[in-house]
Structure formats: structure tokens, C-alpha cells
Amino acid sequence: MTKPNLFSGMQPSAGSLHLGNYLGALVNWTKMQDDYNAFYCVVDLHAITVAQDPAELRKNTRVTAAQYLAAGIDHNKSALFVQSHVPAHAQLAWVLMTITGFGEAGRMTQFKDKSQKAGSDSTSVGLFTYPILQAADILLYQPKAVPVGEDQRQHIELTRDLAARFNSRFGETFEIPEVVILKETAKIYDLQNPEAKMSKSGDPKGLVNIMDDSDSIMKKIKSAVTDTDGVIKFDREAKPGVSNLLGIHSAISGESIDALVSHFDGKGYGDLKTEVGEVVLSVIEPIRTRANELLADPAELDRLLIKGANKAQELAEVTLATVYERVGFIAPAR
Ligand code: ATP
Ligand code: LTN
């Protein structure tokens, strides 16, 4: 039996992934590659919808790809590739823009948030059409599943609406993809502010980056905010800091929260932090080492990305050719 397709994307927007990205998204992506024919795309076209330094963007694109490979995306099973290497993304986005309502695009909450922060003069039209490019990313690969965080749900709904609209106007062309929302239990919180999710835009002291050195990771975990009652138990409301540490331990070690609470019975917060630090380093250190090896040989890394792009391109071109034919473009003479 052939496996169903899967598509997801990540922005090359930082020099390192953080523990939240890893436990919340990447671990699931690596697991899903056995059951799906997966396409994982580093979305550099999306990254330029806000100002980017060209040298930084190049570096972050490679660093992002290297970390995904290092964390277990297998280039022999899945296509890991860079969006700008497959021109069909921009080409399909144009066609989809012509069937998207202006008001419909204007209702996207991520656009409203980002443009409000930036002000209308520094908000680009590209930021406005960002979700339509995302729809093109997805629909080119006819995926059954699109695994994303809760914040992306509205964009996947738009994608489904555009696919259904195109199909009804021009004939069955696109698979209508299902959104797969990654588990709430894998939500990781800021170590300094454990009511907010761990984020690259949060407090740097509360953020564990995969590419940070081990000493500074241990230091950050040891200075995690807890509380004063000294009891190790799980209660998100009353004890967000301790609960976050237990959640991180459990997500990595696979032990249930109950088992961890019994394990730490009679022990103090210092013991909890040291053990969580050790567990975190046990997964992060090999990923960082492997990512650095990949980055030390950019020619080999680029070769793997081209291999991914070739696989992606094969399918993307077939979908785009069907779309062009359906909308009434004459095929170019060969
Ligand atoms: P950030 O807030 O750090 O910018 P993001 O959601 O904008 O995070 P992306 O690069 O878009 O970052 O995220 C990639 C994936 O990581 C998404 O699927 C997102 O849901 C997931 N993710 C991000 N932060 C966390 C977190 N703290 N806990 C669990 N999953 C997370
Ligand atoms: N917008 C997403 C990144 C993204 C994506 C996609 C995710 C771009 N294209 C296609 C899934 C499918 C984000 O900011 N996380």
C-alpha cells in the first residue's frame, strides 16, 4: 500500500530551534515519517514577508535544515527541502490569490496581529498574502495530513476552503487536507515565566535553545522559576513552574507524571532541576553535535537539500501542470 502524503513547514527565522519547537513539533514529525510520505519544507519565501538580513537568512535556512536532519528527519524517508528551490510554490500561490477574497484574507488573525505590531507603512503586501502561499505549499503535495501548532489552524482552514473552491470551479484537482494539531501535553512553557509558552520572542533566560552550550542550558534550568511550598507535584494553576519541569521530563523520558511525582517524593527542587537538566541534555547534546557536523560540510548539506527538492519538484510540477491546464493556460510549446 502506498502511504498517504503529509506536508508541514517551518520558518528559518532563528539561529536555533528551542525546546518547545523540538518537543511540541519536531518529535511528532519524526514519528509521522514512518506512516506517511512526508514533505518538510523550510519556508524561506515566507521568511521575507518581514525584514531579513540576507546573510542571516542564508545562515538560518541551513541551520534550520541541519537541526531537523539532526533531530531525526530522515532524508531517505522524507523530503526535506527549501521552498525557494521549488518554483511551483510561488506559481501556485499566484493562481490561488485570484480565487481568494480580499476580505477573506483580511480576516487572518496572524496577519492582523503582525501588521498591528508593525504599523501599516512597514506591513508588506507579502505579509497579507502569506497564508495563500502557505495554502499553495500544502496543496501542491496532495497531503492527507498537515501537522501544525494550534496557532496555524486558521491558515489550514483557509487552505481547505481554497482547495474546495478550486475543485468546484475547475473540477477535482486538490485533496482536501486534514489539520493535525499536535498534542497539548507537549506544550513547553518559559522557564522564567511559566504561564507563557516558551518562545524565541520571550525572555532569553527562560528559553532553552538546541544550539546553546550545555553549561548555559544547565544554568537556565537550575534558575527556573518555581514556588515556595517545596512540594513536587503537578498542578498547572497553582504550581506552573514545577509542573513545566515535570512536563519537560515526562515528554523526554516517557515516564508518566504520576511515576515522576512518586520518584521525586521526599526530594527537593534542586534534585528535580538537576535531573531535568540531565534529561534535557541527553537529547539535546547529540542533536547539537550532529547539526554542527552537518553545518561543517555545507556542500553535503546542500546536496541533501537538493535531493529533497528534486523529490518535491516531481510531485509539485504534476499538480501545477494540472492547475494551469484547468484554469485555461495553453501549454508552452516544447
Ligand atoms: P515562537 O513563539 O518561538 O516564535 P512559533 O510557533 O512562532 O514559536 P515556529 O517556528 O512557527 O515558531 O514553530 C514551529 C513549531 O513549533 C510549531 O508547530 C509550533 O506550534 C511549535 N511550538 C512553538 N513553541 C512551542 C512551545 N513552547 N511548546 C510546544 N510547541 C511549540
Ligand atoms: N506559517 C507556518 C509555517 C508554514 C507552514 C506551511 C506550516 C508555512 N507554510 C505549510 C504548515 C504547512 C508557521 O509560521 N509555523
Q: Quick summary of this structure?
A:
This protein is mostly helical and 334 residues long.
Secondary structure layout plus pairing:
Elements: E1 5-10, H1 19-32, E2 37-42, H2 44-47, H3 54-70, E3 79-82, H4 88-97, H5 102-106, H6 109-118, H7 125-139, E4 145-148, H8 153-170, E5 178-181, H9 214-222, H10 240-253, H11 257-263, H12 269-296, H13 298-327
Parallel strand pairs: 1-2, 2-3, 4-5
Bound molecules: adenosine-5'-triphosphate and L-tryptophanamide.
Residues 10-11, 20-21, 24-25, 148-149, 151, 186-188, 197-201 line the site of adenosine-5'-triphosphate (ATP).
Note down, in words, how this protein is organized:
- α4 packs parallel to α13 and α7 packs across α8.
- The chain is mainly α and 334 residues long.
- The two termini are 35 Å apart.
- The radius of gyration is 21 Å and the shape is elongated.
- It folds into 2 domains: 210 residues, Rossmann fold; 79 residues, Tyrosyl-Transfer RNA Synthetase (Orthogonal Bundle).
- It has 13 helices and 5 strands.
- It is 54% helix and 7% strand.
- It has a 3-stranded parallel β-sheet with strand order 1-2-3. The protein has a two-stranded parallel ribbon with strand order 4-5.
- The structure holds adenosine-5'-triphosphate and L-tryptophanamide (LTN).
- L-tryptophanamide binds next to β1, α7 and β4.
- It is an enzyme of class 6 (ligase).
- Its EC number is 6.1.1.2.
- GO terms for molecular function: ATP binding; tryptophan-tRNA ligase activity.
- Keywords: Aminoacyl-tRNA synthetase, ATP-binding, Ligase, Nucleotide-binding, Protein biosynthesis.
- It catalyses: tRNA(Trp) + L-tryptophan + ATP = L-tryptophyl-tRNA(Trp) + AMP + diphosphate + H(+).
